[in-house]
Amino acid sequence: MHELKNDVEGPLALMERVFEAKGQLASEYPLVFRRGFGGRLVALDDERGVRSSCAVLPRTLVMAGVHWSAGLIGSVATDSDQRGRGLASQVLAEAERWLAEQGCLFALLWAEDPRFYLARGYRPVGSELDAVVDAAVAARLPIAPDIRPVVPSDAPAVHRHYMSQPYRADRTAEETQALLHCPGMQVLVAERDGRVAAYACLGRGRDLPNVVHEWGGDRTLVLALVREAFLASGADHVVVMGADNSSLVFAGLAAAGAKVHRGFLGLAKPLAGSLPSLASALAAQGGGTCHVESDGKVERCRWTGPAGSVHLDSNDLLDLLAGPRGTSEVLEQARRATGLAAAGLPLKPFLWGLDSI
Ligand SMILES: CC(C)(COP(=O)(O)OP(=O)(O)OC[C@H]1O[C@@H](n2cnc3c(N)ncnc32)[C@H](O)[C@@H]1OP(=O)(O)O)[C@@H](O)C(=O)NCCC(=O)NCCS
Predict the structure, then answer these.
(1) Alpha carbons 40 and 57: distance in angstroms, whole number
(2) How far is the CA of 76 from the centre of ligand 1 (A)?
(3) Are residues 65 and 180 in the same domain?
(4) Mutation test residue for ligand 1: of 45, 56, 83, the one with most atoms within 8 Å of CB
(5) Which residues line ligand 1 (CB under 6 A)?
(6) Are 84 and 205 within one domain?
(7) Quick one: 149 and 192 in the same domain?
(8) Which of 53, 56, 108, 116 to mutate to test the pocket of ligand 1 (most atoms within 8 A of CB)?
(9) How far apart are CA 159 and CA 199, in angstroms?
(10) Atom 26 (ligand 1): residue with closest C-alpha?
(11) How, if at all, do strands 211-217 and 237-243 pair?
C-alpha cells in the first residue's frame, strides 16, 4: 500500500478502466493528478500492478466564516477480477489514515450506490438545493445581452465570484484556473459594463452531465446564465445545484416554476483522533462547554448547558454539526438535555461541482 503523487500512471490506468473514462480522468481532476496540487492517490498493488486505488484531497470547508478541515475521497476502484477480496476496504482505510494525518476532521465522499460506504461507517451530511429547469421554466428566466463562453483571461474574475460564496471550499486562484479546463464542461460568463459579473458551469465529465453545478456573481445574471445553459445543453431539462444558503437564486428559479429539492451533500465519517476538534467546534457553534472524557477505551465528549449534560461520540458530533439537509435528531435530543438553543446548528457544509473529486 502506498501513497503517490509522482507516479500516477498505475492508479490512473486502473481508474480509467473501471470508470470507462475515455482518457479524460487526469484532466477532469487536475487537483488530484497534476503536480503542484494537494491531491494524492492511494494504491494497493501486486506483482501485476495496481489492483485497487482511490483519490484523496484535503480541503478546508468554509461556512459563513466557520472553517473545517475535511478530506475528500473519490474514484474508489478495484479491478473487476479482484473484487470482493477486501481490497477497496483496505484502500479506504489507508485513505482515511492519511487524511487524519493531514489534520482532516472527517472524510467526505459522493457515491451513486452508498451501500459500500454505509457499511463502513459513513453517514449522510450537509445540505444542497437542486432545481429542475425545463423549457417552460427557462422561458420565464431573465435574458441578458452579454453572455459568452469563458476565455482564459476570465479566470481571476470567476475565482473572485467563487470566493464570494459564503459556503464553499477554500480554493486558490491557481486551482480555479486549472479546474476551468475540465472536459465535458461549458462555462458561460455574463458581462456588465465590460466586466464579468457572473458565471455558471454546465456539465463536468462523467459525473455531472446537464447539471449547472457551480455559479456565482449577480443573482439576475446567474438566472440568465441558467437560461443560456439550458439552451446550450440541448437536453429537455437541466438541474441547477447550489448551497442551501443561496436562497435568492433558488427563489428566482422557483418563481419561474422550477421544482426545488433539498438533498444532502455527501457521505462522511469522522476520522481517528478528530473527537477533540469536533468537540471544540460544537462548543464554538453551539455554546455551553464540551469536555472530552475517556475511560481508556472509548473517547466521548460531555456537552453541558444550563439544563444538564449529554454524552456524544464522534458520529454524534458530526451529526450535530453537519446533519443531512440541515437536520439532526441527535441535536434535537441534545438541545432538550442541555437546555442550549444551538440555533446555528447544524451547519450546512457545501461543495460546488468543481470541488468534487
Ligand atoms: C465498489 C468497489 C470499489 C468495491 O471494491 P472491492 O475491492 O470489491 O471491495 P471490498 O472487497 O473491500 O468490499 C466488497 C464490498 O463492495 C460491495 N460492492 C460491490 N460492488 C459494488 C458497487 N458497484 N457499488 C457499491 N458497493 C459494491 C460489496 O457488496 C461488498 O460490500 P460488503 O463487504 O459491505 O458486503 C468495486 O466494486 C468497484 O470498483 N466498483 C466500480 C467502481 C465504483 O462503483 N466505485 C465506487 C464509486 S466512488
Answers:
(1) 6
(2) 8
(3) no
(4) 83
(5) 18, 52, 76-78, 83-89, 111, 113, 115-116, 119
(6) no
(7) yes
(8) 116
(9) 10
(10) 116
(11) parallel
245 Cβ partners below 8 Å, 6+ apart?
64, 166, 167, 348, 350
Whether residue 287 sits in one domain with residue 333: yes
Whole domain around residue 298: which residue ranges? 268-338
pTM, rounded to two decimals: 0.95
Q: Which residue's CA is minimally distant from atom 23 of ligand 1?
A: 113
Per-residue pLDDT of 222-248, as tens digits, reads 999 999 999 999 999 999 999 998 779
Domains of the chain: total: 3
**pLDDT per residue as tens digits for the range 61-97:** 999 889 999 999 999 999 999 999 999 999 999 999 9
CATH number where 228 lies: 3.40.630.30
147 domain residue, yes or no: yes
**163 inside domain:** yes
Question: Are 259 and 280 contained in the same domain?
Answer: no
What are the residue ranges in the chain where pLDDT is below 50? none
Dig out the grid coordinates for 195 from the structure: 466586466
Provide the phi-psi class of 342: left if phi over 0, else alpha when psi is between -120 and 50, else beta. Answer: left
The reported pLDDT for the residue numbered 11 is 95
